[in-house]
């Protein structure tokens, strides 16, 4: 049976240590760490920051479910529109792509330091001048370097697919995993993303069984082909009873992490009400 965690990316108006404390207060067993500003933007996340985080984790007895390195918004002084994933692992510019590979290695270092089983990373979008077939080559080369770093440290790397990214659905992430063929590569399974893409969630869970490094969960209005806006369970249309039944049937016993970055002004309500709703199923 899965345990519940909550991502600090809902608490971007709070420090990382305070976010950990508040998540613990709501009864979660785990916490996902945002590997980006304002929490752990790695070029600026130093020894003192790490000590403060470790102290908060020790004091709350929370496990770390995942280090979320999907975005690197701290890269920008004034982020342009739709910059969420740039620089990415598929960026055409060699220097910027190398920057992102090194950034992901620092996420692995943090995961290793705090006992997180995995980091997750998104692929980014194939932007103008970088057609998908070339972007795919960049992705595979980037992942080889990242996995060479992750495997000796016992950290898994989960690709988080998302509609409109290079890897946007279950078919594509499973094909990538088969092509790269590395034991430490899996999928960080965001079930809201699968729902928006139009997938049957029980089938998605069954197909990815054994390759899931972590699960992200949120409610979505409209379910399949719904709008990609993360909501508190009960405020959308997903069937959480069937989701947790499918996770049990698949033998998944890792963390299910609520990812509700859409509630920065009321993260405690999001954490509290999510726990109240999901306690029915775990």
Mean residue pLDDT: 95
Oligomerization: single chain
| CATH topology (fold) name | TIM Barrel
Largest sheet: 8 strands, parallel, barrel
Q: Which CATH class applies here?
A: Alpha Beta
Question: How many helix segments?
Answer: 9
Q: Report how far apart the termini are.
A: 7 Å
Strand content: 5-15%
Low-confidence stretches: none
How many discrete domains?
1
- Measured as a percent range, the helix fraction is 25-40%
Strand-pairing-aware structural class:
alpha/beta
> Strand order across the biggest sheet?
1-2-3-4-5-6-7-8
Query: What is the H level of CATH, i.e. the homologous superfamily?
Result: Divalent-metal-dependent TIM barrel enzymes
Principal-axes geometry comes out as globular
Query: How many individual β-strands?
Result: 8
The CATH architecture can be named as Alpha-Beta Barrel
Please compute the radius of gyration using only Cα atoms: 17 Å
Order of helices and strands: EHEHEHEHEHEHHEHEH
Structure commentary:
This protein has 282 residues and is of the alpha/beta class. It has one domain: TIM Barrel, CATH 3.20.20. It contains 9 helices and 8 strands. The protein has helices spanning 16-25, 47-60, 94-114, 132-150, 170-180, 191-197, 201-208, 240-249, 267-278, and strands at 3-7, 30-34, 63-68, 118-121, 156-159, 185-190, 212-217, 255-258. Strands 1-2-3-4-5-6-7-8 form an 8-stranded parallel barrel, surrounded by 6 helices. The longest helix has 21 residues, at 94-114. The N and C termini lie close together (7 Å).
């Amino acid at each position: 049976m899965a345990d519940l965690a909550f991502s600090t990316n809902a608490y971007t108006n709070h420090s990382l240590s305070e976010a950990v404390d508040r998540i613990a207060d709501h009864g979660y067993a785990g916490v996902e760490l945002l590997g980006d500003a304002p929490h752990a933007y790695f070029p600026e996340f130093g020894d003192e920051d790490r000590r403060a985080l470790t102290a908060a984790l020790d004091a709350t007895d929370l496990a770390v479910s995942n280090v979320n390195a999907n975005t690197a918004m701290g890269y920008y002084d004034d982020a342009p529109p739709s910059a969420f994933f740039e620089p990415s692992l598929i960026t055409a510019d060699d220097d910027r792509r190398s920057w992102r590979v090194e950034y992901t290695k620092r996420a692995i270092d943090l995961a290793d330091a705090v006992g997180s089983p995995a980091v997750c990373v998104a692929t980014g979008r194939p932007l103008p001048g970088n057609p998908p077939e070339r972007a795919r080559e960049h992705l595979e080369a980037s992942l080889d370097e990242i996995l060479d770093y992750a495997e000796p440290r016992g950290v898994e790397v989960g690709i988080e697919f998302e509609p409109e990214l290079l890897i946007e659905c279950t078919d594509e992430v499973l094909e990538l995993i088969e092509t790269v063929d590395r034991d430490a590569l899996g999928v960080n399974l965001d079930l809201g993303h699968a729902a928006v893409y139009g997938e049957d969630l029980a089938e998605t869970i069954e197909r990815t069984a054994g390759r899931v490094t972590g699960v992200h969960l949120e409610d979505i209005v409209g379910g399949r082909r719904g709008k990609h806006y993360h909501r508190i369970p009960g405020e959308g249309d997903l069937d959480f009873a069937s989701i947790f039944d499918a996770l049990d049937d698949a033998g998944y016993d890792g963390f299910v992490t609520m990812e509700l970055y859409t509630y920065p002004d009321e993260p405690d309500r999001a954490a509290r009400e999510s726990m109240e709703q999901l306690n029915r199923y775990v």
